[in-house]
């Protein structure tokens, strides 16, 4: 199948501002409007945030994980979102058990893609070494279980060559992640849960967009990821609020044409980020 997606190239736009050709054009008395009117130049771009579309592999066919991953990348995915849950019912973090480091290690043998690991576990520190060794790229832990040891955790994640992120459940106030975004070793992404963690296919919670908006205003260059219930009918509100990393499970895997859904998610984020 042919993919007809067109990606917006920020760099091209900014390069064109500084190129000699562009300067020559604006200072020329014989300014030819034709090429300009056919090219959507944004003179005051709000900010530069790349869209990252991350299909959640929780909705994939686990028996064919490598080919499912490859399928998503061919369809235009930037990242692969890996939901790691410990099923630790006693501590009531999430009542579901999914994948662990051995699966990440196996998948890593089949792909060089960015593996965006979302840890819904009670003791994330216990998983850092094994996930680093397995080849995880991003390590996003929950703030609710790391209030006391996040500094040590972030250091350890970085030392293992992974990118640290923090996630928050719907009931957790956004202010709880502020300390993790300041100081010498800040996290590099915030994941705002837009459903209760545990399962794919749940209904998007629009109220969570206040958190996204607040974060985007305070941290204009931060990677803000939204996770849960994202798809064609909910992406615009999330993109407008300021999310640039989009996790989507059932809406992508359940679509007859997943490439179209991935493209639509990307277009919505890019549109929201290029308002002049
Ligand atoms: C839920 C997981 C999500 C989930 C998203 O706990 O963190 O990543 O797979 O699935 P959808 O997009 O179907 O809500
Ligand atoms: Zn997730």
Automatic annotation (TrEMBL):
A divalent metal cation binds at residues 81, 83, 118, 227. PROSITE patterns: RIBUL_P_3_EPIMER_2. Substrate binds at residues 56, 118, 198-201, 229, 249-250. Binds 1 divalent metal cation per subunit. InterPro entries: Aldolase_TIM (IPR013785), Ribul_P_3_epim (IPR026019), Ribul_P_3_epim-like (IPR000056), RibuloseP-bd_barrel (IPR011060). Its cofactor is Zn(2+); Mn(2+); Fe(2+); Co(2+). The keyword Isomerase applies. GO terms for molecular function: D-ribulose-phosphate 3-epimerase activity; metal ion binding. The keyword Metal-binding applies. It comes from the Eukaryota. It catalyses: D-ribulose 5-phosphate = D-xylulose 5-phosphate. The active site is at residues 83, 227. Coiled coil: none annotated. GO terms for biological process: carbohydrate metabolic process; pentose-phosphate shunt. Gene3D superfamilies: Aldolase class I. Keywords: Carbohydrate metabolism, Cobalt, Isomerase, Manganese, Metal-binding, Zinc. NCBIfam families: PRK05581.1-4, rpe. Belongs to the ribulose-phosphate 3-epimerase family. HAMAP family: RPE. PANTHER family: RIBULOSE-5-PHOSPHATE-3-EPIMERASE. This is Ribulose-phosphate 3-epimerase. It comes from Tagetes erecta (African marigold). The lineage of its organism: Eukaryota, Viridiplantae, Streptophyta, Embryophyta, Tracheophyta.
């Amino acid at each position: 199948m042919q993919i007809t997606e067109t990606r917006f190239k920020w760099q091209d736009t900014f390069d064109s501002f500084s190129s000699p050709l562009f300067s020559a054009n604006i200072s020329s008395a014989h300014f030819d409007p034709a090429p300009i009117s056919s090219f959507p130049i944004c003179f005051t771009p709000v900010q530069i945030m790349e869209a990252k579309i991350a299909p959640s592999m929780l909705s994939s066919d686990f028996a064919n994980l490598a080919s499912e991953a490859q399928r998503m990348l061919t369809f235009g995915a930037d990242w692969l979102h890996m939901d790691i849950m410990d099923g630790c019912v006693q501590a009531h973090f999430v009542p579901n058990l999914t994948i662990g480091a051995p699966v990440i290690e196996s998948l890593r043998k089949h792909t060089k893609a960015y593996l965006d690991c979302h840890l819904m576990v009670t003791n994330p520190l216990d998983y850092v070494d094994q996930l680093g060794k397995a080849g995880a790229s991003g390590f996003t832990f929950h703030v609710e279980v790391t209030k006391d040891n996040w500094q040590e955790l972030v250091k350890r994640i970085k030392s293992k060559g992974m990118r640290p992120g923090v996630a928050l459940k719907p009931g957790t106030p956004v202010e709880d992640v502020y300390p993790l975004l300041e100081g010498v070793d800040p996290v590099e992404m915030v994941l705002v849960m837009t459903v209760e963690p545990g399962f794919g296919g749940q209904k998007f919670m629009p109220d969570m967009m206040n958190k996204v908006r607040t974060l985007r205003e305070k941290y204009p260059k931060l990677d803000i990821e939204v996770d849960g219930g994202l798809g064609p009918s909910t992406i615009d509100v999330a993109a407008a609020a300021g999310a640039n990393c989009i996790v989507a499970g059932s809406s992508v895997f359940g679509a007859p044409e997943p490439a179209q859904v991935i493209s639509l998610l990307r277009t919505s984020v890019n549109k929201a980020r290029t308002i002049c």
